[in-house]
C-alpha cells in the first residue's frame, strides 16, 4: 500500500513538473513576441517631442542656469547706439561678422534716446537646438511704429533654418508668448517687428 501511494504521488509530481516545464517553454517563446508585453526587448520607444527653450518660463533664474550648463554653448553680444527721434537709425550687432541688426524708423520714439541690446545665444551641444534672447533697454519704451529686428537666420539658427519664431516675455504672466513665424528673405535675413522694449526671443 505504501509503495502504491508513493508511486502515485511521484507520478503526480512528475506530471506537474512536466506541465510547468511546458508552460515555461511556452512563455519563453510566445510572450517576448507579444506586443502587450511591457518588457518586450524589441519594443521601439516613440521619439521624444521637440522641446523649445521658450516652452518654459525661462526667466532670469532659468537663463542663468542655462548659461552655466556644460551641455549648452553660450554666446553674448552687446551693442549701444544713441538715436535721434527725428532720424531714427540702426544698431548693427556683431563682432566677427554681422548677424544681427536693429532698425528704428524716423519719429518712432518720442525723444532722442540711447538704445542698448544684449543678446544671449544658447545652443544645445547634442541636439543643436538654438534660442536667442534679446534684452532691450530702456525697458518699457514703446514705439509709435514698430522697429525691426533682423538676423541672418542660417548664421544664427543653423544651416537648415529658413524661418524664425518670435517670442515676447510677458512679465505679468511670467511666460513666453509666440508672436509669429517669419520666413527668411532672398538675402537669408529674417525681419521681425518689435513694438516695445522688454525681453524678446527667437528660435
Explain how this protein is built.
This protein has 203 residues and is of the alpha+beta class. The chain has 2 domains: 2-33; 53-202, Chondroitinase Ac, Chain A, domain 3 (Sandwich), CATH 2.60.220.30. The protein has helices at 2-30, 60-67, 153-157; strands at 72-83, 89-93, 100-104, 113-124, 130-137, 142-152, 163-170, 175-183, 189-196, 199-202. The protein has a 6-stranded antiparallel β-sheet with strand order 1-4-5-10-7-8. Strands 2-3-6-9 form a 4-stranded antiparallel β-sheet. A hairpin with a 5-residue loop joins strand 4 and strand 5 (130-137). It is globular and about 45 Å long.
Radius of gyration: 31 Å
- CATH architectural name of the largest domain: Sandwich
Order of helices and strands: HHEEEEEEHEEEE
The average pLDDT is 76
- Predict the CATH topology of the largest domain: Chondroitinase Ac, Chain A, domain 3
Low-confidence stretches: 1-51
Structural class by helix and strand composition: alpha+beta
* Tally of contiguous helical segments: 3
Shape: globular
Main sheet properties: 6 strands, antiparallel
Number of strands: 10
Q: What would CATH call the class of the largest domain?
A: Mainly Beta
Share in helix: 10-25%
Q: In what order do the strands lie side by side in the largest sheet?
A: 1-4-5-10-7-8
Span between N and C termini?
A: 88 Å
**Strand percentage, roughly?**
35-45%
Topology of this protein?
Elements lengths: L1 H29 L29 H8 L4 E12 L5 E5 L6 E5 L8 E12 L5 E8 L4 E11 H5 L5 E8 L4 E9 L5 E8 L2 E4 L1
Antiparallel strand pairs: 1-4, 2-3, 3-6, 4-5, 5-10, 6-9, 7-8, 7-10
Amino acid at each position: 500500500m505504501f509503495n502504491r501511494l508513493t508511486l502515485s504521488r511521484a507520478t503526480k509530481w512528475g506530471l506537474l513538473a512536466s506541465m510547468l516545464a511546458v508552460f515555461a517553454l511556452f512563455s519563453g517563446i510566445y510572450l517576448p513576441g507579444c506586443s502587450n508585453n511591457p518588457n518586450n526587448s524589441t519594443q521601439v520607444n516613440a521619439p521624444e517631442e521637440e522641446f523649445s527653450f521658450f516652452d518654459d518660463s525661462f526667466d532670469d533664474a532659468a537663463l542663468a542656469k542655462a548659461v552655466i550648463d556644460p551641455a549648452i554653448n553660450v554666446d553674448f553680444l552687446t551693442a549701444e547706439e544713441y538715436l535721434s527721434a527725428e532720424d531714427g537709425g540702426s544698431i548693427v550687432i556683431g563682432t566677427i561678422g554681422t548677424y544681427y541688426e536693429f532698425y528704428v524708423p524716423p519719429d518712432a520714439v518720442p525723444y532722442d534716446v540711447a538704445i542698448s541690446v544684449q543678446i544671449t545665444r544658447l545652443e544645445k551641444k547634442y541636439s543643436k537646438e538654438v534660442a536667442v534672447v534679446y534684452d532691450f533697454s530702456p525697458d518699457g519704451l514703446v514705439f509709435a511704429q514698430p522697429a525691426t529686428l533682423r538676423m541672418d537666420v542660417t548664421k544664427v539658427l543653423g544651416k537648415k533654418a529658413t524661418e524664425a519664431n518670435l517670442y515676447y516675455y510677458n512679465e505679468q504672466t511670467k511666460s513666453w508668448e509666440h508672436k509669429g513665424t517669419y520666413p527668411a528673405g532672398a538675402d537669408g535675413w529674417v525681419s521681425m517687428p518689435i513694438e516695445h522694449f522688454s525681453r524678446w526671443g527667437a528660435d
